[in-house]
Specification:
The chain has 3 domains: about 1-60, SH3 type barrels (Roll); about 65-125, Beta Barrel (OB fold (Dihydrolipoamide Acetyltransferase, E2P)); about 130-185, OB fold (Dihydrolipoamide Acetyltransferase, E2P). It has no helices and 16 strands. With about 190 residues, it is mainly β. It is flat and about 60 Å long.
């Protein structure tokens, strides 16, 4: 069994009958009282983030996960079809395991997170950044870049992203998939 001394970012643990990954942690030793570890945990099954405090030396149950590269092929009803890149084996993943399903494009590379002991699919993750073309947005006004004003834009996957006023239809933009935000204009 591991203890809170073994915590590190990205570690997966069993906690409250769910599988969580450690987003951040901080070991605190107050002047009075015992030491403790303050953590932020993200559920791999439903994406919910919670904060929890463990006493120092508390036993934690580490679970092993595997990240496998797959390629997104197409949507089939309420599931998504992915192809394993080495064996060309295809699998169907239910929509509830997909993060940001409206940011998927045919042929896009993703990682499928699988629990090693049970071989269950926990989640499908996009790369941190994707580049997409803007298919529709209102035209920007020349010289209107003094403020940080944003406007809605539809990208080629159908997702709506807030972009700066100078972005026009046909531009390629870089999108942060973790918070669905505009990063920069891409070449």
């Amino acid at each position: 069994m591991a203890t809170t001394a073994d915590l590190k970012n990205g570690l997966c643990i069993n906690f409250n009958n769910d599988i969580y990954t450690v987003v951040s942690f901080q070991h605190v030793k107050p002047g009075k009282g015992p030491a403790f570890v303050r953590t932020r945990l993200k559920s791999l099954t439903n994406g919910r983030v919670l904060e929890n405090t463990f006493s120092a030396g508390h036993q934690i149950d580490i679970t092993k996960i595997i990240r496998r590269p797959y390629q997104y092929l197409y949507k089939d009803g309420n599931s998504y079809v992915f192809m394993q890149q080495e064996t060309f084996e295809q699998i169907n993943v239910p929509e509830e395991h997909i993060e940001n399903p409206d940011l998927y494009l045919d042929g896009q590379n993703v990682e499928i997170v699988i629990q090693e002991e049970t071989d269950n699919i926990l989640t499908v993750e996009l790369p941190p950044f994707v580049i997409m073309e803007v298919t529709y947005t209102e035209p920007g006004l020349k010289g209107n870049t003094a403020t940080n004003a944003l406007k809605p834009a539809t990208v080629e996957s159908g997702a709506e992203i807030r972009v700066p006023l100078f972005i026009n239809q046909g531009d390629k933009i870089k999108i942060d998939t973790r918070d669905r935000s505009y990063v920069e204009r891409a070449n």
